[in-house]
Amino acid sequence: MFQEFYPLRLQDNCEVEHLLSPEVSQEPISLRSPASEVMTDFSQTEPITVTEGVSVDDALERMKSQHVRMLFVITLAGRFVGVISAQDIAGSKVIVYMQNHGVARNEVAVGHIMLHKQYLRSLTFDQIRHSRIGDIMLTLKNSGDQHLLVVDETELGIRRVRGIISASDISRKLKVGFEIMYEAKSFAEIEKIITQGGEMVV
């Protein structure tokens, strides 16, 4: 059975002292960096999902275990129908649903309080490829959205969610609070804030 295989010679590791780390671009991210730098690309990262019938508390536990604050909601057939965030579960949505429908908390499902996809806004992947982080930041500021879906199209013309961009990711990567950036009066001022480590200079 194993005639076509052979054991490999094992090596001694006494002289090995270093661990390899992935190469990271030395160029710091700025407002002029490609927008793709702040996009979670589902061609490279698996989207974290939950089915619409799962209880909100189980969904919250899934977020904690996956270290995310938002889940993509799908049907049992795998069709995308919306999103749910930790804020949705921790906020008033659950209590309001319980009061309006006379149910206990463990009866509240993801599908009852999720944000349906028709209320989400999106950009195309082509828009992302030709945009910079500053463009995205201004778009989020003007729209008031915390998240934007990124949609592309297959060769057969099927539209799909390619990724997501969130205000919190931009804030984390630029190391500046979004609310601080919103207080700035110009992009030059924002760049100064980024350079000075996220502090607003009066």
UniProtKB/TrEMBL annotation:
<dbReference type="InterPro" id="IPR046342">
    <property type="entry name" value="CBS_dom_sf"/>
</dbReference>
<dbReference type="InterPro" id="IPR000644">
    <property type="entry name" value="CBS_dom"/>
</dbReference>
<dbReference type="Pfam" id="PF00571">
    <property type="entry name" value="CBS"/>
</dbReference>
<protein>
    <submittedName>
        <fullName>CBS domain-containing protein</fullName>
    </submittedName>
</protein>
<feature type="domain" description="CBS">
    <location>
        <begin position="39"/>
        <end position="103"/>
    </location>
</feature>
<keyword id="KW-0129">CBS domain</keyword>
